[in-house]
Amino acid sequence: MSRVPASRLRGLPAPTFLLAAAWAALSAAACAAGRPPEMPADLILTNGAVVTEDPARPEARAVALRGGTVAAVGSDDDIARLAGPKTRRIDLGGAMVVPGLIDAHGHVRSLGEELANLDLHGVVRIEEIARMVRERDKALPAGAWITGHGWDQNLWPGKKFPDHRPLTEAAPGRAVWLSRVDGHASWANLKAMEIAGVTRRTPEPPGGKIERDASGDPTGVFVDNAQDLIDKAKPAPTRARIKEWLGMSLQRLAAAGLTEIHDASVDPEDVDAYRELADEGKLPLRVYLMWNGIGKSRIEPLVEQPPFVNYKDRVTLRAVKLMIDGAMGSRGAVFLDDYSDDKGNRGLFVTEPDELERRAEMAMRKGYQVCTHAIGDRGIRLTIDAYEKALAAVKPSDPRPRIEHLQCVARADVARLKPLGIIASMQPSHATSDMYWADDRVGAERGRGLYAWRWVLDSGVIIAAGSDFPVDPEKPLIGLHSAVTRQDLKNWPAGGWHPDQKMTLDEALRAYTAGAAYAAYEEDRKGKIAPGYWADLTVIGRDLRKVPPEEIANAGIELTIVVGAVVNESR
Ligand SMILES: [Zn+2]
To answer: 3-class SS at 67?
Structure first.
């Protein structure tokens, strides 16, 4: 919510002739002083608490933007002088201005798909779900499936699994496919089963169950692996659909105050969609893309394509995402020792270490930055080993290898990061989402290295902050709160979880600005508010330096500015 009245956020139209006259006088004065008159600014922000991250001028009151870059930073008077007749002026009323916030690790398309899904969480009547399906049926083009997530039969009278009929009646001509709140079961209508070729003769797949009625006909609910029967019949999305998802997602991200996203794994169809959106002038934010180098498929065809930078001022593709291990929650992260709550289990490699090294080396040879998901202490160690060997073999000039997540690091490995130039791409809110069970997984000793921001920063390593949305909420204010407090939004636990690893507010802000900009090779253009830097700014409702930490998450985003344009405005 905004605390700045609408009147101050709107441009302040003054009689144009007066401004023009003042401008002419000013220009004349400048000429008289022997200086050429400066072009007027496009947008000026005054009366703000501007945190620049620029050591030459750490704080200011006002900023002028022109032609997509920062024209000047200074006092209200200095900046007001740069207004011309067409300049938009915004009085910030003391709101905080920071360099445009960046999420260094998120999944734009997944968030969009989630937004396009019917949200069925907490719906207590099947009739309501049928109504939602009927509405969506009217809105979608022919052939598109209605998908949704979050139903829970325990909220309904009778608490029984549903059958296909309410969905079949709501959308007889279109497939409907809705997953349960835990993802372990999904609910189809007749059309979906028909398209998938599921009949009473379809056998139960291993690890799955088809719910059936007394006569053996599938009822419409598919449990665990049986969900694949319907999933695999889903049509590949069209280009238009992908663009729609990206667009919805980016609008949501702009509202969260983000000016740039590092999209942590894209396929060629996503890159094409991004480029088309950029061509059409429909990309509100900058995106920094990582090829999807995770799966079994070869990454050669991807890295054979030359990287590109700043296409249409919006799109960069110069990184590859790799993945060595799984996640801690499902005990897939790879550890040197057994999981403390699962003896004999040390996790699973998603990519074998020698293959990871091969891919890292190949990507570096082709001029790509390598970003590897590594979570367990052994996964992290082997990733550092792989980087060490690949760097020695390729000797790239400015490789900036990244470790994504770095969730449970061995103390001894922290000192290896900086000499190799490794960037820590970490997600502050993962700590406060996982703290309820993470200690159980790893025990007290290894637990000291959980989300070890302090160790990382104190060793001189740069943190690029993100959220991994839609895994965690996309809001950087939530991440900043987690980084500073290591508490959840109810301020639990008192004093914070492993409080010795907290970041300061300054460090956390830098991780979302200068740190993330460095991780994208943009530190000379982004991450600071200084003349010549990109005109990417975030305006936060309250000065975070002055609010109690427990209020950071609710400080509100008022403006998101990218390439000098206001892409989100909430009042
Ligand atoms: Zn991710």
So the answer is: coil
Query: Cα–Cα distance between 567 and 259 in angstroms, integer?
Result: 9
CA of 65 to the centre of ligand 1 (A): 33
What stretches in the chain show pLDDT beneath 50?
1-22, 24, 26, 28-36
Q: How far is CA 223 from CA 76, 235, 376, in A?
A: 62, 21, 30
Tell me how far apart the alpha carbons of residues 566 and 434 are, in angstroms, rounded to a whole number. Answer: 35
**pLDDT score for 184:** 87
Interval between CA 263 and ligand 1 midpoint (Å): 8
User: How distant, in Å, are the alpha carbons of 37, 188, 291, 338, 436 from that of 557?
Assistant: 35, 39, 31, 43, 29
Determine the residue type at 505.
Answer: L
What pLDDT digit, counting tens, does each position of 53-74 carry? 999 999 999 999 999 999 999 9
Q: 479: which 2 tokens?
A: 């991440």
- Spacing, Cα 445 to ligand 1 middle (Å): 27
User: pLDDT for 169-183, tens place per residue?
Assistant: 999 999 999 999 888
528 Cα–ligand 1 center, Å: 26
What is the Å distance from ligand 1's center to 431 Cα?
14
Residue pair 327/379 in contact by the 8 Å Cβ criterion: no
Q: pTM of the entire structure?
A: 0.88
What separation in Å is there between the alpha carbon of 251 and the centre of ligand 1?
19
